[in-house]
Amino acid sequence: MECLEDESCGRRLHMTFTRCCSCESLKKRLPFLQWLPRYSLQWLQLDLIAGLTVGLTVVPQALAYAEVAGLPVQFGLYSSFVGCFIYCFLGTSKDVTLGPTAIMSLLVFVYTLGDLSLAILLAFLSGCIQLAMGLLNFGFLLDFISYPVIKAFTSAAAVTIAFSQVKNLLGLQNIPRQFILQVYQTFRELPSTRPGDAILGILCIAILLALKWMKDHTSRPYRSMSICHRICYLIVWIMTTARNALVVVGAGLVAYSFHVMGSQPFILTGKTAKGLPQFQLPPFSEITPNGTRTFSEMVQVIGSGLLIIPLMGLLESVAIARAFGFTNILGSFLSSYPVTGSFGRTALNSQTGVCTPAGGVITGLLVLLSLGYLTPAFYFLPKAALAAVIICAVAPMFDLTICKTMWKVKKLDLIPFFVTFLLSFWEIQYGILAGAFVSIIILCYPIARPEIKVSDMDGLVLTPMSGLSFPVMEFLKDKIYEKTLTVSPPRSVTLDFTHVNVIDYTVAVGMADLLSEFKAQGVCLSFSALQPHLLRMLSSSDLLGLQNLHSLKTADPVFAQDSEDESTQPLLHNGIVSLP
């Protein structure tokens, strides 16, 4: 009876433990279950403030970033709300906001050239790739993109994006999108500058910079301050935080005033599609003037964008790859182009005191309200004002001060930095690929050419200072030949493997070849301080004739082996293996 009761109690404990494990697993997969039960009214107030603040930044930036992507402005808003809702359920950080960014918009234009069907399909395929990377833990691939490469890429992208908006800032027409041609044609067309656009654009930049300066230099109110001071601080805080929306709305009102008076000195955004996007499948084919383009042809046109855009989208955080993947997949059904985490809006979200990812829901609702009721007003938005918003948004991304730090820390890092920075002006996608390639070469060089110390006090000893992999074999052979077999008379040598904790098949075969050559020359090649796991591996492989070494107690400082024919067996004394 007692046994039955014990067994029943054990089953109950096991079931309770299983339920707890299942609950924890579910919370890990759906992070909103961790904070939702503890949600309070105070959190709601702070999330509401943060959501509205970020929303007032998202709307004007989304309109501007669609221009960078070469798409109608409403598609910037279509791309801005899906991530807000998805991340509320799958997000692990309260601060991160998903949506269109300047760099992602630039990359979308590079690979789609403003083709709407390609942009939406790219969002779907990027989401699938990001989701697969998250599920298969392929985030380690991003570890091979070094920080200097990322900084060089973002700095070059900032210059490219900012200069691409000069044409809108000055009201210039027929300017190509390729950077070098763009610079040439922009300076050539300067006499055609429209005064109205130029004055408005420069004025908008000046206002944005002034408001940013005010925000950076306005101290927080103290409790001892009067109500008037607190109200003044609140007004300044709202104006400086929502400066993008303030400038765009103000410019739109100015343009509308000129329209009412019967003149229009600005180039306007023009007619914008009304309402919310339709829920429909991403385009897996499209009709072009040259006929129907199939799915495989569309994929071929996108090309390397299927690698670059998913990777760039995950640079902020691989840990939330699932959120990025779901956002891009679902967003493609709502006419979104690829999105990622925004560093600027994430910082703003944190500064405004957001408590949970629910703040993104408020931002998403504000974007939906804009799509539902404000799209007719977008007609009067001057392109010069949107250009000013973009230029001021990307300007902080340009940072060459890192070069000074790299010069002090490791001068070699300047090579991938400048390779990335300069090539990005030719083709932005080639810049980051070339920079990553150069970084990998710099990373692999010490593996192929490790430091080898030479000692010739009590006999010739060569000591590799790191593990030995296949790229090093020819270099190691040349080093051994130089010191032993090419001299007269040939010399014996000991390889000290104190610092070697890994070798591969190529190295083992190379060592076997060396043993044969040394034996033919009548000299000895010895191995000192072989680690136990290397001894076991070499003995089991029989490449060096060490087939019986697995029976040795390799943990002992002095090794010995019994053999019927000692002339045919390897000798292993005091940690040294040699073949007579």
TrEMBL record:
Residues 460-543 form the STAS domain. Pfam families: STAS, Sulfate_transp. InterPro entries: S04_transporter_CS, SLC26A/SulP_dom, SLC26A/SulP_fam, STAS_dom, STAS_dom_sf. It is found in: Membrane. The keyword Membrane applies. PROSITE patterns: SLC26A (PS01130), STAS (PS50801). One of its GO terms (molecular function) is secondary active sulfate transmembrane transporter activity. Keywords: Membrane, Transmembrane, Transmembrane helix. GO terms for cellular component: membrane. The keyword DNA-binding does not apply. The chain crosses the membrane at residues 43-63, 69-90, 97-114, 149-166, 198-214, 234-258, 301-324, 354-374, 380-402, 414-443. It is a multi-pass membrane protein. This is Sodium-independent sulfate anion transporter isoform X2. It comes from Xenopus laevis (African clawed frog). The lineage of its organism: Eukaryota, Metazoa, Chordata, Craniata, Vertebrata.
